[in-house]
Design goal:
Layout (H helix, E strand, L loop, with lengths): L8 E3 L11 E7 L2 H11 L4 H4 L1 H5 L10 H14 L7 E9 L8 E12 L4 E9 L5 E10 L6 E3 L12 H9 L8 E6 L4 H12 L3 E7 L1 H11 L7 E4 L3 H13 L5 E4 L4 H8 L13 E7 L7 E4 L9 H17 L6 E5 L10 H14 L7 E6 L1 H5 L1 H6 L12 E3 L3 H14 L3 E7 L5 E2 L7 H23 L1
Parallel strand pairs: 8-9, 8-11, 9-10, 11-18, 13-16, 14-15, 14-16
Antiparallel strand pairs: 1-7, 2-4, 3-6, 4-5, 5-6, 12-13, 12-17
Length: about 475
């Protein structure tokens, strides 16, 4: 097979090799990531080019590229194609005829116009046209052309760049409840900055109607210290954290609230009231927790269960844990979630209980004891989320590499997986307790207000689904 060396090397043209009228072209399509990267590199955060909402109210009614994005492509042609390596840009003039918008395909053409033998400078005409053959940029570039032939390998290592806008993912999460009626939510003991800011943000976003339960003077002091506006938010006074948990649960039992949210108290205090057989919020299901995670390096949402409630769940517990997660997946729009039952290995090993549980759970699903999802296990974590890893190990499965629900063996392993994804993979995280009469937002005291607000979105979706069950 003959190899085309031109595809592997950057080959320049020297001053003597260039004739008047010689030209070269490059074609690029403007992607949203290009605009963001250019803004990051230059520090130019002009809202006309980086803020879609501002752009829609401006002259062009859409996001446009920085003007010098097109100008930089002219430099790309000069430095890599024509004349190529060794070229030094001396002077450049540009006229911007019309904007370049997201999705436009721009062709940059440079043509040799004048040569100056005394200093080996060349002036090029530069024209950038869009997909409609309309000029967007025109101008000239004067360069010092190379005088030595250069052939340079193209495969210079450059770091791979990924644009991950966590705020965009967060905004997309909030949009899931846009237009829905806010859900009355009892917030137990929101007595520090983040635990108060979360429900306030969710209230301002129209997600919930918080009922703040706790020492009123302490709640108002925190709000004043951090500038949080409590206008329109109901406060129910409570003596201390235990009292806050009891009153918050009672508000759910009386129908004043359709969701419950943990504030700055300990999880045991709140869940002690929730699981109370006399005045709690139990149902016939085992109570379990689900982390809903948007991981930028994974191609679908991930539900991780149980990483917060059941320390060492039995096989019977896991049936409810899985069913709770499947039901949540249906609510958030996954009609038939793929459920990976995790272990350290992907084969059944009598010495590893989690593999035995996985095999039994899959057979129980076959018999209709777990419904609404596709189960497979045991699967190691890599096989669950990587089709390459699964194929390498010869695993043929509809779940492997495409899992949407990860069922962990115990609380310890689940908590580690979830926290690693949040802190090392920049996952957007929401947490919810299911199997109770109402959804419970159960976040860590270290969680940010944004995580708490995202969790409120999931609670609101579940609460609306519960309403629909009642009316149907």
């Amino acid at each position: 097979m003959q190899v085309n060396n031109e595809q592997h090397y950057l080959v320049n043209k020297t001053y003597d090799e260039i004739a008047i009228g010689d030209s070269s072209s490059l074609t690029r399509t403007l992607m949203p990531e290009d605009v963001k990267l250019f803004a990051i590199l230059t520090g130019d955060f002009n809202p006309t080019v980086v803020d879609p909402n501002y752009s829609q109210s401006g002259m062009f009614r859409e996001v446009i590229a920085h003007g010098m994005w097109s100008g930089s492509l002219i430099s790309t042609v000069l430095g890599t194609q024509f004349p190529g390596p060794g070229t030094i840009l001396v002077d450049q003039t540009l006229h911007f005829a019309r904007p370049v918008t997201i999705g436009d395909t721009i062709t940059i053409t440079i043509t040799a116009k004048q040569k100056f033998d005394h200093n080996q400078h060349i002036i090029f005409d530069c024209v950038c046209t869009n997909q409609d053959n309309l000029q967007v940029v025109r101008g000239t570039a004067e360069v010092l052309a190379p005088n030595e032939k250069v052939s340079h390998l193209r495969a210079v290592h450059m770091p791979e760049v990924h644009i991950d806008d966590k705020h965009e993912r967060y905004t997309a999460m909030l949009s899931r409840v846009k237009g829905m009626e806010p859900i009355p939510t009892a917030v137990a003991h929101p007595c520090d900055h983040e635990s108060l800011k979360g429900p306030v943000m969710a209230f301002q976003a129209g997600i919930i109607e918080p009922i703040l339960v706790g020492p009123e003077n302490k709640i108002r002091a925190v709000a004043e210290e951090f500038g949080l506006d409590l206008s329109g938010i109901r406060i129910v006074n409570a003596a201390h954290s235990h009292d806050s948990a009891a009153i918050a649960v009672s508000l759910v039992r009386t129908g004043d609230a359709e969701a419950l949210m943990k504030g700055s108290l300990h999880t045991d205090e709140l869940m002690g009231e929730v699981v109370s057989r006399a005045n709690g919020l139990r149902t016939n299901r085992r109570i379990s927790h689900v982390f809903l995670m948007n991981v930028p390096t994974y191609h679908r949402p991930l539900l991780i269960t149980d990483a917060a409630i059941n320390i060492a769940p039995t096989l019977e517990d896991k049936v409810d844990i899985i069913q709770n997660a499947i039901d949540l997946a249906h609510i958030i729009g996954i009609p038939e979630p793929k459920v990976a039952i995790l272990s350290a290995v992907e084969t059944v090993n009598p010495k590893i209980q989690s593999t035995l549980d996985a095999a039994a759970l899959c057979k129980m699903a076959d018999r209709g004891q777990i419904t609404g999802g596709i189960l497979d296990g045991p699967l190691a974590f890599d096989n669950a989320v990587s089709i390459v890893a699964a194929k390498t190990k010869g695993i043929k499965s509809a779940v492997a590499g495409h899992a949407e629900i990860l069922v962990v063996p115990d609380l310890e392993s689940g908590n580690m997986v979830a926290k690693q994804l949040e802190y090392l993979a920049n996952a957007l995280t929401a947490g919810i307790v299911l199997g109770t009469r109402v959804p419970i937002v159960l976040t860590s005291r270290a969680d940010t207000a944004e995580t708490r607000t995202a969790s409120c979105v999931i609670a609101a979706l579940v609460a609306h689904a519960n309403r629909n069950k009642v009316t149907s």
